[in-house]
Design a protein that fits this description.
This protein starts with 5 loop residues before the first helix and ends with a helix. Helix 3 runs antiparallel to helix 7. It has a domain of 152 residues. It is globular. It is an all-alpha fold.
Length: 219
């Protein structure tokens, strides 16, 4: 059995505890009423927990040299959480220097780890690595392209972006957990949470689209 240093063990424990709380809170937020004080408060707490998960995940990879693929899921979950929070704050597609910087930093990190995975011979399933990184790159590409959308056309896309990105942050976190807890069921334990998240996202987007349409029609 592999032995870890005290600091490494502490980092793992903190990572797992905050991750579990974030997942539990994420489920509550998904099923609770949207837009109210509790939803907003819960969202801020979820982001704080996600930040701790991301930081401890980075420590695990960069300092303790553990599980490089989890860093990709960490990047995906962290970027979606950050971007989903920023879009609900601004409710517009006006460029912000901080957002552009974070996008470039995340993109550069993803490209580096794609190179790294290829150089070590793809220890993880290639379909999981490529699909996860491809998903991350597509989100970043959209975040750059949305700056070109006219304000009038952009409209309420910020709402659907928020829904999509926050659920994606949750499902990336869930995929990291199930992939670690059920290693014998890879790649299914890794991509099934993403499929579930996609279904939930589509349902919520359709619901809020119809709700806004009805409010516009009868309001």
């Amino acid at each position: 059995m592999e032995e870890y240093t005290f600091l490494h063990q502490t980092n793992i424990i903190v990572h797992v505890i905050f991750g579990c709380i974030a997942l539990f809170l994420g489920v509550i937020i998904l099923v609770s009423k949207k837009g109210g004080k509790n939803h907003k408060r819960g969202g801020r707490v979820f982001l704080a927990l996600l930040t701790m998960v991301v930081l401890t995940g980075l420590f695990g990879v960069l300092i303790f040299k553990r599980n490089m693929f989890l860093l990709v899921l960490t990047l995906l979950s962290g970027y979606n959480g950050y971007s989903g929070f920023r879009i609900i704050k601004s409710k517009s597609n006006r460029p912000k220097a901080l957002d552009i910087f974070v996008s470039f930093l995340t993109l550069s990190s993803g490209i580096y780890f794609l190179y790294y995975f290829n150089s070590i011979g793809m220890m993880w399933s290639p379909i999981i690595i490529y699909s996860t990184l491809g998903f991350l790159f597509l989100i970043i590409l959209y975040d750059f392209l949305r700056y070109l959308i006219p304000q009038k056309t952009y409209g309420y896309l910020w709402l659907y972006e928020h829904i999509y990105k926050m659920i994606a942050a949750f499902t990336a976190l869930l995929a990291a957990a199930t992939g670690t807890i059920f290693p014998n069921y890879k790649p299914y334990s890794q991509f099934l949470p993403s499929i579930l998240g996609t279904v939930v996202t589509v349902v919520y987007i359709i619901y809020f689209y119809r709700k806004r349409k009805d409010e516009t029609t009868f309001g």
